[in-house]
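so im writing up the methods section and need the EamA family transporter record in one place, dumping it here so i stop losing it
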Amino acid sequence: MLALTAALSYGVSDFIGGVASRRVAALRVVIVSYPLSVLIVLLIAPFVGGSLSTAGLLWGAASGVAGGLAVWWFYLALASGPMAVVSPLTAVLLAGIPVGVGLAAGERPAALAYGGIALALVAVVLVSKESPDETTSEITGGRDMRFTKTVAWLTVGSGVAFAFAFIFLHKIPEGGGLWPVLASRATATVVVWGVALAARQFSPPHGEPLKLAIYVSFLDVIATTATMYAFQGGLLSLVSVIASLYPAATVMLAMVMLGERVGRLQQVGMVLALAAVALIAGA
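--- predicted struct ---
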């Protein structure tokens, strides 16, 4: 249930962040949402309890660094490469690497769960298979988006970094409360602020995009917290693959709220995602 909560929170957050990014640069959204998430956790953490531990803080910080780098590289890849290639490749790396690490570490899910993992890996690729829309054309100025060597490295880098953000969250020991989440959001903030300053995009949004960034910050805290607790109570190979199904929620919201057309492959992917969750839950 926690892994599913994480997937839904990540998915809704991506949807809201995507809407905001249609009005301002995505980097301008996260330079607001990340520090706000730090403040939110800072206010809540004392009431949750838990003890400060060096291991918890270090693994939390490592997760934040990996997540911050992943977001940076992912946006750079989308800015220069074809979304229909960048998104699914990133998604399959995010879903597949933690599964491989978990199995290599000796995790042995039930037989039924293996079927769920296989379906989930296919589902996340299909659901993430997007086609450029009118907004994408406006952003790119009609440029031909090629999957160059640079875009390939950025895409692989972002997928690997996202995956390691999950793996590091899994390493956080129990009993630390929300302090590891605080460390994660703080280091992620340092990364994106540094990138924004270097790129000369350190300019907070105003109006509606600012409101959306605030919503994203709350969802970010929910998603990160749910993922951490899910990992503490479950297998890396299973929790990570469920959490990686978040694009299904994003696509569903885009279809319902924005009236966007969903391709046949994405529809198949959403059905497979539901089947995957059912199989893993049943196992």
